[in-house]
Amino acid sequence: MARWDRERKETTVPDWFWEAVETPSEAHSVEVDECDVVYQTWQAKADKPGMLLIHGMNAHRRWWDFIAPQLASDFRIAAMDLTGMGDSDYRYGYDAETYAAEIVAVCDEAGLDNEVIVVGHSFGGMMAAKAANLFHERFGALILVDSGLRAPDEPVRDYPMMGGGRAKAYPDRETAEARFRLFPPQPCENDYVMKYIARNSLMRVDGGGWAWKFDEELPLTLKGGERQPEDYTGLTLPVGLIYGENSESFSARTLEHMLELLPGEPKVTMIENAQHHVFLDQPEAFVQALREMATSIRD
Question: What are 120's strand-pairing partners?
Fold first, then answer.
């Protein structure tokens, strides 16, 4: 990625960001049910505990590029693309059981043992919880990032449906990047983060032009993607919750409900001045919170 701000007299991109995204990493793939699942690793000592990062809906592993390297001194980290998103293959249909199998396969292929800490943002957290229920002994701990189940009495905001219909193609990269938006909708003051993610979220399409790296049909074909109380009451491993102070997806009432559902005493961290996309809003605070929680949750 070009350092687009380095030629300006006053840069708005902090040095830690450049150091992170320029840290060497390696892409790999593993086949699950006839589809390639792509994941990324960062070099780390073999004796470090494992950590798997899972993105949200319509996102991909590159969203973690400026987060993972900052944790690589303490953990052996992999970040994956669930099928239908990023560089992983598309399927004719998607289901929670297959996503769970993908999560296990990446952990196996990346050499992450049964003590691996799985960190899932939003939809990724939901799939991680389902995987932990299906494969009780495969994971050591689960950290849900702004990911949970609303209380039955909590109103749900009506957002436009994601996906469906013909994929939108843009004539050039610049036009496409200008159209990048977060979902659920929210502003993000860190323009450099938004620009980086947008640049790494595009692919060339047949016939010319550019499109986003996700399957428009995924939300329409997904089975078993609904959050259920038993996804959380049935968990048998340590669980941590990280959420944004101003998140519309994870309110104080949601936290209260999650604490009623989860067994044991989950660890909880609120990130101030953050919304649903916590680690985009407050990346440095998020890294610190995740490091501390991941370290303590294993004790």
Answer: 54, 144
Query: What are the pLDDT digits (tens) for 42-87?
Result: 988 788 999 999 999 999 999 999 999 999 999 999 999 999 999 9
Helix, coil or strand: residue 243 = strand
Question: Which residues, including other chains, have CB under 8 Å from residue 135's CB and lie 6 or more apart?
Answer: 100, 104
CA atoms within 13 Å, Cβ hemisphere of 193: 22
Which residues contact residue 282 at a Cβ distance below 8 angstroms, ignoring those fewer than 6 apart?
244, 271, 272, 273, 274
Handedness of CA 244, 247, 252, 254 (dihedral sign): negative
Distance from CA of residue 37 to its chain's centroid? Answer: 15
- DSSP secondary-structure letter at 61? G
SS3 of 120, please?
A: strand
Return the SS3 of 35. Answer: strand
CA 29, 31, 32, 33 dihedral sign is positive
Query: How far is it, in rounded angstroms, from Cα 106 to Cα 245?
Result: 32
Q: Please give the single-letter amino acid code of residue 298.
A: R
| Dist. CA 61–CA 202, nearest whole Å | 13
Pair type for strands 141-145 and 267-271: unpaired
pLDDT tens track for 210-230:
999 999 999 999 999 999 999
Looking at residue 172, its amino acid is D
Judge residue 215's burial from the number of C-beta atoms within 10 Å of its C-beta, 0-12 exposed, 13-18 middle, 19 or more buried: buried
184, HSE (Cβ side, Cα atoms, 13 Å):
17
